[in-house]
Amino acid sequence: MKPVIIFVMIVISGIDLFPQNDSVLNFIFVPHPRSEDQVNQSIYQGIAKIDFTKYDMIMLGGDLTYSTSKDSATLAYCDNLFNLGSPNTLWSLGNHDVQSGHRALIKEFTGRESFYSYERNGVTFIVLDTELDADGFSNTFIKDDQLQMVKNVCDSIAEPGFLILLHHRFMWMINNEYFKTKLTDSIAASSRSMDTTNFYSDIYPLLREVKNRGIQVLVFSGDKSKINIEYSPEDSITFYAARMADDLPDSMNNVIILNYNLQNKEITCNFVSLEEMITSVAQEPSHLPERFVLNQNYPNPFNPNTTISFSLSSQLFVSLKVFDLIGREVASLISQELSAGTHSIQWNAEGLTSGVYFYRLQTDKSTEMKKLVLLK
What we know:
Oligomer: single chain
CATH class of the largest domain: Alpha Beta
Structural class: alpha/beta
Distance between the termini: 57 Å
Number of domains: 2
Largest sheet: 7 strands, mixed
CATH architecture of the largest domain: 4-Layer Sandwich
Helix content: 10-25%
């Protein structure tokens, strides 16, 4: 039997992005979210508009910005969007994440090593670091402690469930004749230029063993791709890549939404365009907020203007202030009574230096604070 290879060229529409069912968990896979902005180190704006708080699991395919670990401000910007320290945010490092050499800085935000495993609700996740033992763009290997981790996890999975493998470079395309001839112009050089990997000799047999025990195996790769791929060899392990490139419109760029039905023990995967993701947020029914919410400022990083919005469930006296890293107040934006509903204010930080700041929303009942990044 030949492998079933699907190059998904259409956007799946009309799906329920957030099933209203307590027995369904919603995961999102975000491939290669960086823009080409080397100055501001920004994430592609179509991705930045997604409300990630709605997802039970965030799977990041790597290359968050052009040089993610360049400094604390860039990582703080990514943390504001993806909550990097959450156990439910899984991040497979890409070459642009580590090219500055500041791996220790990344660990300060994630609290994890660069490769690890995680289990939730019958789903086992393995996150690989394909940059750890890579030689430029020519090869990458999973070896030593990282390979032993994969072996230990695969050996320990006994009950029927799911195994999800998350990594950056497209190791499963290397030495695969079909991909070698078909995708040379569709994937990033960091994967396209590789000619050596130990994926099929050391990793793939372990995945096959897991699958043969009745466990569904899904593999997600997050390097840059200009085509959606769902690739299923005859052993039923399924490999995914999603189209995401800064020079493509939101209607063509995709994330993958995974709906995990806890009762039926089924995971469905759908390619969804950023355009549809953004539209689904805009079309949510309007109503008075049920709780006190401080939203992340947008854009972030910013220079010099940014918008801060928040929601009140009742009429309250509100204080909104901005502080620097050592706790000094640098701006008082609001100090008045406001009605229930959603409010926003634009802040101009023209007179301040680049860096990380904090904005605090306070009422007599609640207080919430978030970080923002000024980059000049």
